[in-house]
Specification:
Blueprint: E1 5-6, E2 10-13, E3 19-20, E4 26-32, H1 33-42, E5 75-80, E6 83-89, E7 95-97, H2 130-142, E8 158-162, H3 166-171, H4 173-176, E9 190-194, E10 212-215, E11 228-230, E12 236-240, E13 250-252, H5 256-264, E14 271-272, E15 288-289, E16 299-302, H6 304-312, E17 322-325, H7 332-342, H8 351-358, H9 366-379
Parallel strand pairs: 1-4, 12-13
Antiparallel strand pairs: 2-4, 3-4, 5-6, 6-7, 8-9, 9-10, 10-11, 11-12, 14-15, 16-17
Helix pairs in contact: 7-9
Length: 382
């Protein structure tokens, strides 16, 4: 938990709250460090440890300078769930991240949503030192401070994926044709994987079944000129980082700069704004939990390795990795749709189908089920 707290407490500017600063800005009340300690101490009685003086609400050592041990004021920029960074500010107000071996015991910035991309400056390196640079740039813009160009904004955003399935090998047959075995792409070799912009797909493809890969080359200057293959169809395409959309045979891919701009304004889907409406890309300030109305329960299984492929952009539809486990007791057709149909008069050309359905002698095809469901929604019955 990141607690809104200062050394002595008091009001802190925050959009969406009823308190007011002296200058009229909306504010939230910050706890004092002493109050936070007192709250944490109340939970010591629930401690499962042999040392009962320890609270399950542990005050993290990030709050204290590693050399002096004195408590310090921390700041947090939270974009959405799992996307946040902790930082300090110098006497001039400039932010700097909590970094292991420099001013903290651990690095304290999130890599979620960026960790699948290669280092744009050293693609062969496994380090992620470009991510803290991106975070500092984001934080400075959020604080209204000038941000220096990163130097890699125009480079195509690339991930690295292994060849792990026969389907992937078959799609690469065109690249292997005529080559000696030692020069061919083989199972568990690495490929480059790019990310197509929202309107960057060629006009004759299905965005949910289109993913471009190319032989792994560590030089970013060569990436645009590589032979790119669609893993679904095996067809070859070109890529570009210019323009606003794709064209026949050419895909408009995202650059690192575009990925970071999307990252910076990622909406918090689980939260609502001050008025209770779903938060969007421009929502900021104190958020609320969204109200949820449960309409049905569906049991699903999620394969964790496939979810990693979704994050890497190899799979575009999360639904393709979900396995549904239907429970007849909770099935929407039996518990919701069919009872609603039985409350309505039967008429129309499909009267015989409806009579059989309502009597339980047959069940409509999926297309007819969806049609009946949409009609009930329009009537306001379900």
């Amino acid at each position: 938990m990141a607690i809104v707290a200062t050394e002595h407490g008091g009001l802190v500017p925050c959009p969406g709250r009823p308190f007011k600063m002296p200058d009229g800005r909306a504010a939230v009340r910050a706890l004092s460090w002493k109050e936070v300690d007192e709250i944490a101490a109340r939970f010591a009685k629930l401690s499962p440890y042999s040392d009962k003086s320890r609270s399950i609400l542990k005050i993290e050592r990030d709050n204290y300078g590693p050399e002096t041990g004195e408590q310090r004021q921390l700041y947090c920029l939270a974009i959405s769930s799992k996307r946040h960074a902790l930082f300090l500010r110098d006497e001039y107000g400039n932010p700097f991240l909590l970094q292991k071996g420099i001013n903290n015991h651990e690095d304290r910035w999130s890599e979620h949503g960026l960790g699948h991309l290669r280092n744009p400056m050293r693609p062969d390196s496994e380090d992620r030192d470009w991510i803290p640079q991106a975070w500092i740039s984001i934080i400075r813009r959020t604080l209204g401070l000038p941000a220096q160009p990163l130097g890699f904004e125009e480079v195509p955003a690339m991930g690295r994926v292994p060849i792990t399935s026969p389907t992937a090998m078959r799609s690469l047959a065109k690249l292997n044709r005529g080559k000696k075995y030692r020069n061919r792409l083989k199972p568990f070799d690495f490929l480059l994987s790019c990310h197509v912009k929202q309107f960057g797909y060629p006009p004759d493809v299905d965005p949910d079944e289109f993913h471009l890969v190319a032989p792994y080359v560590p030089d970013p200057e060569c990436w645009v000129d590589l032979p790119w293959i669609d893993q679904y169809s095996g067809r070859q395409y070109e890529i570009t980082t210019e323009g606003f959309h794709g064209s026949r045979g050419v895909a408009r891919v995202k650059t690192y700069g575009e990925v970071l701009r999307e990252y910076e304004f990622h909406p918090g889907a689980k939260s609502a704004d001050a008025k209770g409406k779903p938060s969007g890309k421009q929502t900021f300030g104190l958020l609320r939990r969204r109200h949820v109305r449960v309409e049905q329960i569906i049991y699903i299984g999620k394969e964790s390795n496939r979810l990693e492929e979704i994050e890497a952009g190899v799979i575009h539809s999360p639904q393709s990795v979900y396995t549904e486990y239907p429970d007849p007791r909770r099935e929407e057709w039996q518990t919701k749709i069919l009872p609603a149909l039985r409350r309505l008069p039967v008429a129309g050309r499909s009267r015989s189908m409806l009579v059989r359905t309502l009597a339980g002698r047959s069940r409509p095809r999926r297309r007819n089920q969806e049609m009946l469901k949409s009609i009930l929604h329009r009537l306001g019955v379900v």
